[in-house]
Specification:
With about 290 residues, the chain is of the alpha/beta class. The protein has 2 domains: about 1-85 and about 185-290, D-Maltodextrin-Binding Protein, domain 2 (3-Layer(aba) Sandwich), CATH 3.40.190; about 85-180, 3-Layer(aba) Sandwich (D-Maltodextrin-Binding Protein, domain 2), CATH 3.40.190.10. The chain is built from 11 helices and 12 strands. It has helices at about 15-20, 40-50, 60-70, 115-130, 145-150, 160-170, 195-200, 200-215, 225-230, 235-245, 255-265; strands spanning about 1-10, 30-35, 55-60, 75-80, 85-90, 105-110, 135-140, 155-160, 175-180, 185-190, 250-255, 285. The strands form 3 sheets. A 5-stranded mixed sheet has the order 2-1-3-10-4, sandwiched between helices.
């Protein structure tokens, strides 16, 4: 058995991984797959890839592209969720902020530098016509850290996936004052250069398994019930999320989409300049020329 350690956030997007693990699907391919739940999100996962603590990670597209450009010894190996991510823009229940037009000078809670919550705050600022580099940030570690920051009045605004936060909005702990949508596919799978060199067959078999389970999950009659039960969502919210989410079932990705990500990262000064897409990708990830 070949050990492969995979990191991912504790969110409904990764349910196909857990179903595959529960079924022993990876073991049938000779893979001892160890799943690591990373509450700190993409910033924590890119750190884990750099340190060799993770072999693969299911990470936000913008975050992993930025970190590979900044020297992370990893490559993109597959698109995972092809649909965009809807980010809710949240404030504490008693916050003075009630409208997105008011938050240009607010303190944004981010899990860490380079995380999705960090990068998307920049992207949102650009969409609003603000100067992204003027934003103020408070590093909070994870979603629970953001909740504490709101309670302690050390942060004002949090961008986080809207269905993950929905129970906290429903309970009245948070209020959602708006949302923004990533202009690209939201999740990619990345692998370290080391695991690609030394365990390539196991990596390829891992992808074959997860593609099958993603395909199956998109056609399961009980998928909505599973999501609602396991992630504490109302069935109507689980259904809305499920109907708008599409997983990738092949190893193709739009080159234009990745170019758009890189251009945006450069525009908001997360990276110094635009770079070519090809060095970010392993040869097992093919560019879909049909959508160029």
């Amino acid at each position: 058995m070949t050990k492969i350690t995979v990191g991912g956030v504790p969110e409904h997007f990764n349910l196909p991984w857990h179903l595959a693990i529960e079924d022993g699907a990876f073991e049938t391919k000779g893979i001892n797959l160890q799943w690591e739940t990373i509450a700190g999100g993409t910033g924590a996962m890119t750190k884990g890839l750099r340190a060799g603590e993770l072999d693969l990670a299911v990470v936000l597209t913008e975050g992993i592209c930025a970190d590979i450009i900044k020297g992370n010894p990893s490559k993109l190996i597959q698109q995972y969720v092809r649909s965009p991510l809807i980010w809710g823009i949240h404030a504490g229940a008693n916050s003075k902020y009630n409208n997105c037009s008011e938050i240009e000078k607010a303190r944004f809670a981010i899990s860490r530098n380079g995380s999705g919550s960090h990068i998307m705050a920049y992207v949102f600022a650009e969409q609003q016509g603000w100067e992204p580099t003027d934003l103020s940030f408070e590093i909070v570690g994870n979603f629970d850290g953001a909740r504490e920051a709101f309670k302690n009045d050390t942060a004002d605004i949090l961008l986080w996936e809207k269905f993950t936060t929905k129970p906290f909005v429903d309970s009245g702990e948070l209020k959602r004052i708006g949302h923004t949508i990533t202009p690209w596919s939201c999740f990619m799978i990345a692998a370290t250069d080391d695991v690609l060199k030394n365990k390539r067959d196991a990596v390829e078999n891992t992808l074959k398994v997860i593609r099958k389970y993603c395909d199956d999950f998109m056609n399961r009659n009980d998928a909505v019930d599973l999501v609602a039960e396991r992630y504490d969502l109302l069935k109507k919210d689980a259904n809305a999320w499920y109907r708008q989410t599409g997983w990738s079932t092949n190893n193709y990705v739009s080159k234009k989409m990745l170019q758009d990500v890189i251009r945006t990262l450069a525009d908001v000064e997360v990276i110094e300049k635009q770079v070519a897409v090809e060095p970010l990708c392993d040869e097992m990830l093919w560019f879909d020329l049909l959508v160029e």
